[in-house]
Amino acid sequence: MFEVKHRDGLARICSFETAHGTVETPAVMPVINPNKLVAPPKKLKEQFGAQIIITNSYVIKQSEELREKALKDGLHEMLDFDGPIMTDSGTFQAYVYGSVDTNPEEILKFQKDIGSDIITILDRFTEPEDNKELVEEKVRDTIQRAEDAVEEYGRSETHLSLPIQGSIFTELRKDAAEGISKLDAKAVYPIGGVVPLMEDYRFKDLAEVIIASKKGLGPKGPVHLFGAGHPMIFSLAVLLGCDMFDSSSYIKYARRGDFMFPTGTRKLEHTYEITCDCPSCNGRSVEDFRGMDEDERTKLIAEHNLRQMFIEIRRIKQAIRDGSLWELVERRCRSHPQLYEVYEILKKRWRFLELYEPRSRKSALMYTGRETLDRPAVKRVQRWIMNEYQPHFDEPTFLFKVNENEKPYNRHLMFEISEIFKRTEADLLLSTPIGPVPMELDEIYPIAQSIFPRGMRDEELVNEYLEKKGIDDLLVWDGIESLSSVENGSSGNLDVMRVKTVANYQFGKGAGEVLTDGQLRFVKNRKGRVKNVILDDEHILSVRHYDGFFTLKTEGAEILKDHFQAPYLRVKVDDDSAEFNRKGRNVFSKFVLNVDEDLRPGDEALIVDKNDNMVAVGRMFLAKDEILEYDTGMAVRVREGIEK
Fold it and tell me: Model pTM greater than 0.85?
């Protein structure tokens, strides 16, 4: 029911099927008040692009007129909406009013009887002020109600909505999510009890709650952030793995005269110029809005708010496809001080985010502020250089303070490199915005594929690197005179150094040595850049022009397989899949038996059968836990099949 189509880290574009159609996520579900249709559901679909809506089954049940109509005609006919409809259970009303006139079994049956596509259990709302003992009790009750619902409806065509509670206690959130994730049902997984956090702008707590829930839930989906309807938080929530949003805020804000934007909210009373050109705003002045009848003004502002929500979702989808969601999130988080505080959490939890982080992206890494340097993609390469990289030679090391607008750096330092290598073997170190970078890594993502302010460098990290590597004989390049103290010796070869270092970073320690153990030859393009690596007359590697990493040819993959013990670099498939993969067909999740835990989305992978015989070479699409969880969808894009 749930399949990943595109991804950027934890963020994903997915599809899931319901009885009334397929929903593509990320998706917004406008809340429909069945008592007053300010924006008719049919119009939401035709004019705004709403794929799915949500309404409150408890409100319908408590109204005799609505209850009878829903039971007689069905929910879809009553609301005049032919797409999927999700129903809430009354949990939020219980939170607001203290109790509701229904019980868990009754409200679930009612939702099923009126034809809801996604029915929500009557969970127990956990508040930020609740003490831990009370939260534990509410979590236990919620999980028990989820278990009862699965037993009753788990085999039906209806999807269950199984909320994750836990207040701001991250371990309880994680435990609750783990408990819910073990239930065998077609389900949507809302993160509940977060409305008070959003109302009080407690975005740091919100981020911790989402991350804890995702840790416990794993790759299951779709994940629904209950009550999240302001576009300013959509991109952050999607970055952390949320798929669906709902809120009645578009109408609540409109009644107050508040215009919603992805960067915040503007009150009509504080507005002097209309800066939006949507159909609700275009051609109208502030005076026009102030002079309107209240109902007309509310309607127009609500439609403006809806458009802002749906446009932001489309903007997020584009960013996922481009690989630029981090830039969008950083810009959005700079729109409010409390949102900016979220960077403390992203920095703190970077190791969890890194599990789903690709080694490279299609678009360049764009610097938006100091927080850019704390992205998992940057931290990964920084830490590898600092902890894993080994200089090639004992001495000397030349340090270049490079110009940020001259990338790749080695292309602009060809004379200097040539002069050095005429005289000696030497390590070449670059002082860059992300810290020290060995010259042989200067064509890989994000070192080459990034845009930083000119003149920006991290000298502190360079000094830390020199101390850690024990480098005393450092020569800072300041012209040809820098070579005056260097004695003539055997020359270096940057191409060989590049293959060794990039391979060690991309495939693991020792890969560079085995992939260069023999007679090495390079095929280059007209600009002198390496395209293919030939070892003992066998084509083993090709260089990806857009990110500087290697694609594995069959011969290169065989070398790595012989060097690294299983399960390293491997995706193990069953016998049925192996025969298809040998013919060059992609690997699908349901046929995978095991995956190396160090593989990340986008990594090169060795496809092997149960006996560790290689059947194909490909590139990871999903992360390990996703592959082992999903029964549908592609896991690895196969590049070359290997016939017996």
Answer: yes
The fraction of the chain above a pLDDT of 70, given in percent, is: 99
3-state SS, one letter per residue, for 583-609: CCCCEEHHHEEEECCCCCCCCEEEEEC
What CATH code would you report for 365-485?
3.40.50
Q: Which tokens sit at 595?
A: 């995956």
Q: d(Cα 231, Cα 249) in Å, to the nearest integer?
A: 10
Q: Is 189 helix (H, G, I), strand (E, B) or coil?
A: strand
Question: Domain residue spans in the chain?
Answer: 2-351, 365-485, 493-564, 566-644
Q: Give the pLDDT confidence of 176-189 residue by residue, as tens digits.
A: 999 999 999 999 99
Do the domains at 493-564 and 566-644 have one common CATH topology?
A: no
Residue 92: which H helix or E strand, with range?
helix 91-97
Is the pLDDT at 136 greater than 90? The verdict is yes
The span from the first CA to the last CA of the chain, in angstroms, equals 35
For residues 18-44, one letter each, b for 16 or more C-beta atoms within 10 angstroms of the residue's C-beta and e for the rest, the string is bebeebebbbbbbbbebeeebbebeeb
Copy the structure tokens of residue 409.
């750096």
- The whole-angstrom separation of Cα 114 and Cα 60 is 10
- What CATH code is assigned to 2-351? 3.20.20.105
Q: How many CA atoms lie within 13 A of 582 on its CB side?
A: 13
399-432 per-position pLDDT tens digit: 999 888 888 999 899 999 998 888 888 899 999 9
Instruction: Note whether 365 and 381 are within 8 A (CB).
Output: no
List pLDDT tens digits, range 64-93: 999 999 999 999 999 999 999 999 999 988
Q: Which residue has the tokens 């029964």?
A: 631
Cis peptide before 219 (omega within 30 of 0): no
Buried b (16+ CB within 10 A) or exposed e, 337-351: eebbbbbebbeebbe
Can you tell me the distance from the alpha carbon of 208 to that of 349, in angstroms, rounded to the nearest whole number?
A: 9
Nearest CA to 393 out of 488, 468, 464, 492 is that of 492
Structure tokens at 552: 């594995």
Tallying the residues shown for the chain, one arrives at: 644
Angle of helix 104-113 relative to helix 132-153, nearest 10 degrees?
Answer: 40
Are 78 and 46 a contacting pair, CB within 8 Å? no
What is the distance, to the nearest Å, from the Cα of residue 395 to the centroid of all Cα atoms in its chain? 42
Report the SS3 class of residue 228: coil
Encode 468-524 in three state secondary structure: HHCCCCEEECCCHHHHCCCCCCCCCCHHHHHHHHHHHHHHCCCHHHHCCCCCEEEEE
Angle between helix 459-469 and helix 376-387 axes, rounded to 10 deg = 30
Measure the CA–CA gap between 604 and 550, rounded to whole angstroms: 8
Q: What is the 3-state secondary structure (H, E, C) of 286-352?
A: HHHHHCCCHHHHHHHHHHHHHHHHHHHHHHHHHHHHHCCHHHHHHHHHCCCHHHHCHHHHHHHCHHH
Catalytic site positions: 88
Q: Which residues in 374-405 are b (16+ Cβ under 10 Å) and which e?
A: ebbbbbbbbeebeeebebbeeebbbbbebebe
Contact 32, 48 (CB under 8 A): no
The CATH code that applies to domain 493-564 is 3.10.450.90
| Closest to 599 in 3D by CA, of 611, 584, 587 | 587
Strand segments (E) across 525-642: 530-535, 538-543, 550-552, 570-573, 587-588, 592-595, 604-608, 614-620, 634-641
CATH class as words, domain 566-644: mainly beta
Mean pLDDT of 114-142: 97
Q: Are 570 and 616 in contact (CB under 8 A)?
A: no
SS3 label, residue 17: strand
